[in-house]
Design brief:
heterodimer; A: 88 residues; mainly alpha; 0% strand; B: 226 residues; ion transport (chain B); ATP_synth_F0_asu (chain B); ATP_synth_F0_asu_AS (chain B)
Amino acid sequence: MESVVPLKEKKLLNVKLRELASWILMRDFILKGTAGAFQRGYYWYYNKYFNMKKGSIVGLSMLLAAYMLFSYCSSYKELKHEQPSEYL
Amino acid sequence: MNENLFAPFMTPVMVGIPITTLIIILPSILFPTPNRLINNRTISIQQWLTKLTSKQLMSAHSPKGQTWSLMLISLFLFIASTNLLGMLPHSFTPTTQLSMNVGMAIPLWAGTVFTGFRNKTKMSLAHLLPQGTPTFLIPMLVIIETISLFIQPVALAVRLTANITAGHLLMHLIGEATLALMNISLLTTLITFIILTLLTILEFAVALIQAYVFTLLVSLYLHDNT
């Protein structure tokens, strides 16, 4: 079945599987798209948790907890060798 | 155990890609730009703290020295936020790397020295000799003062690196000691209390930033304005 909307302007979730390869090839400004995605994500989080009249500490602590989790994952390889104390 | 101890200070690598740049950029996310006259709570608190700090730091300067205020306040905010983020468990603190601190210290110190040389050559050269020295001591004292001048950037960098690194190491060690002593419960409470105290004192890593910028500030003041 033919798509009504031109292929180039569709977002990723609307693209059919057959058209996926040509969709990927047709996307220009990949770098700008990634940067735009990061910017949109940042502003979504900011407006939801920080930019309120009576903001609370939840936004900041979620961010810090995510950073902690990220650092833990990043250094898991070295932490794997630490066993709990065997002296008993 | 030795390799384990220094593992947190190695440059962080995730699936083979060094993510050091991302971690250095991270604190900038935590300082949003104020858009309105009255902002949200986060920005208001940050604005109040910045105003407090900048008044404290820059009020002792002449207008010419106060042109440096943006540089110094952003330096202060960067080091403070980086050190505070490094207090989280498992995180990487960029200021533990000597390379970064020397990269911050040498250009700033050189800037102050060259500013003084350019604008008040006689005055900045005169700083090499304290007032009222006996005549026969003058050559030796000039040499000593020159050495102390050139040691300033090294001292700035090494001070910051050593303090933060030593604090982190100490916390690791004492934490491990506590875990090891868990079964001998008499000493455990004492050591846990020492950890708590040390952690609180280490929160005054922010005071170290104060020391950093203050030292830089004193140098700028003396070279530029007096």
